[in-house]
Description:
The protein has helices spanning 16-19, 32-40, 74-81, 93-101, 110-121, 161-175, 188-191, 200-210, and strands spanning 20-24, 44-47, 53-58, 60-63, 86-89, 125-132, 135-145, 148-156, 180-184, 196-199. It is α+β, with helices and mostly antiparallel strands and 220 residues long. It has a single domain (5-210), classed as Aminopeptidase. The radius of gyration is 16 Å and the shape is globular. It starts with 15 loop residues before the first helix and ends in a 10-residue tail after the last helix.
Amino acid sequence: MLMLLSLLMPQKFRKIAEMFSQRIKISKKMEINNVINQYAQGHFLMADEQGSLGWYSSQQRALIPLDHRFCYPKSLQRILNQNRFTVAINRDFSGVCQGCANRESTWISEELLDIYWRLYQAGWAYSFETWQGDKLAGGVLGIVIRGAFIGESMFYNIPEGSKVAMVKLVEHLRSRHFLLFDAQLQNPHLARFGSYLVNNWDYQALLNRAFLKYDCHFYP
Length: 220
């Protein structure tokens, strides 16, 4: 939800009615295949302020461009040139999940953390990480379905760690011929990377095209 829901301001819970078109009833026991089927229909999971987990859909989706429209601040280019960080995939998946959830106001509940872990074990969820030495600097949490990367959240422990992860993740997705990088909700941070909004109709069309990319493999 590289959401990036986690980057919304704490008052996001008061704005849920404005941002989401509907909330879908959730079953108490969610099988992984059912979770993936819901994501494939354009829905996503989020816990409310009371920790109750639900499926949501949005009237508009924020996408990160994988073409020439992707951009980032010049100041970030200097950091990239300095090679301060190395990148890894799934080196510390649990650490990335905890980093994304560890904030004063979070939509990632313990129940959702457990679902992410099961998705990871089943080969659907991934963490794209930046490291500085042996310290986890930041990362992006996402779900991969063929040619679609569905960003769930991002975080940093070291300044610029998540921004570098974003740039390197886009490079990785391009190299693997992914069609879609879904960021779910727009915010000023994502806009600096060229994120743009599409309506739900266009989003579903892109999602269906991404599902036809049988040759896309995020890792290895």
